[in-house]
């Protein structure tokens, strides 16, 4: 299968990856498909941490637009990430991948509290670690949580797994002429206001020189090729 370039990665997966054709809810079959992809990467010996989004269950933006308190909407989103994390954990465990869910909001009956040294220890033992509930604070996205957790655990790259193969100058699903970038600097990504990740997350990665890789999770062997160091998707880095 080839050797891995990275020893430890942080994989950011949107909640939509677990949704069925309707784009909402959790489809167990889709969770198994994601688990199969993660299992391949873990099989290379890559220490894998995952941060889940919750867009398939709740979009805080819609609640806020309806007049909901921002903090309340964000906490609801954090709870949604825990639900997605448990669904993915179940699929991974049933695929013979030892997994731990850790949460930034204490829910001791269903998940371990997030302690970065404990997370590192799980990774060192070959367990996949799913980090849920964002940062535990409102006003921070799961993208920012992914960047923060990646630095805390010493990940070598943040891989944002989406349904498009990289970063484009326009929405490729709406504009077939959209141009894909192979590489971008952090400053270019911020100045162009490319919406693949929020500016706080990009800035955090830039300040700590942590590369970001954006790729299509569903393209055959895309994630495997990425962890081997092959050119896939779009790489955002200092140069």
3D structure, described in words:
The chain has a 9-stranded mixed beta sheet with strand order 4-3-5-2-1-6-10-11-9, sandwiched between helices. A two-stranded antiparallel ribbon has the order 7-8. The protein is an alpha/beta fold. It has a single domain (8-237), classed as Acetylglutamate kinase-like (Carbamate kinase). The protein is 37% helix and 19% strand.
Quick gist of this model?
The protein has 239 residues and is α/β, with parallel strands linked by helices. The chain is 37% helix and 19% strand. It has helices at residues 28-43, 60-65, 70-94, 116-124, 142-153, 186-191, 199-207, 222-227; strands at 8-13, 47-52, 99-103, 112-113, 128-132, 158-162, 167-168, 180-181, 183-185, 212-216, 234-237.
Rg from alpha-carbon coordinates: 17 Å
CATH superfamily: Acetylglutamate kinase-like
How many independent structural domains? 1
CATH names the topology as Carbamate kinase
Instruction: State the helicity in percent bands.
Output: 25-40%
What is the string of helix and strand elements? EHEHHEEHEHEEEEHHEHE
Low-confidence stretches are none
N-C termini distance: 29 Å
Approximate shape: globular
Strand order in space, largest sheet: 4-3-5-2-1-6-10-11-9
Write the CATH architecture name: 3-Layer(aba) Sandwich
Structural class, judged by helices and strands? alpha/beta
Largest sheet: 9 strands, mixed
pLDDT averaged residue by residue: 94
* Broad CATH class: Alpha Beta
Q: Helical segment tally?
A: 8
Note the quaternary state here.
single chain
Residues in β-strands, percent: 15-25%
Secondary structure: number of strands: 11
């Amino acid at each position: 299968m080839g050797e891995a370039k990275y020893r430890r990665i942080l994989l950011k997966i949107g909640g939509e990856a677990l949704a069925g054709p309707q784009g909402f809810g959790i489809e167990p079959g889709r969770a198994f498909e994601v688990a199969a992809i993660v299992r391949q990467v873990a099989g290379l010996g890559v220490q894998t941490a995952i941060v889940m989004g919750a867009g398939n269950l709740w979009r805080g933006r819609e609640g806020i637009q309806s007049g909901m308190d921002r903090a309340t909407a964000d906490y609801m989103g954090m709870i949604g990430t825990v639900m997605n994390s448990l669904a993915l954990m179940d699929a991974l465990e049933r695929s013979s991948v030892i997994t731990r869910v850790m949460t930034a909001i204490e829910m001791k009956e269903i998940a371990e509290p997030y302690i970065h040294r404990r997370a590192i220890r799980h990774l060192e033992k070959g367990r996949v670690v799913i980090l849920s509930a964002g940062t535990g604070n409102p006003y921070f996205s799961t993208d920012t949580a992914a960047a923060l957790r990646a630095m805390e655990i010493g990940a070598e790259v943040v891989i944002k797994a989406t349904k498009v193969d990289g970063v484009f100058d326009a929405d490729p699903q709406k504009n077939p002429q959209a141009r894909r970038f192979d590489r971008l600097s952090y400053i270019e990504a911020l100045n162009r206001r490319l919406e693949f990740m929020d500016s706080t997350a990009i800035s955090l990665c830039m300040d700590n020189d942590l590369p970001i890789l954006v790729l299509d999770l569903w393209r055959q062997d895309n994630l495997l090729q990425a962890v081997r160091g092959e050119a896939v998707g779009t790489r955002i880095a200092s140069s």
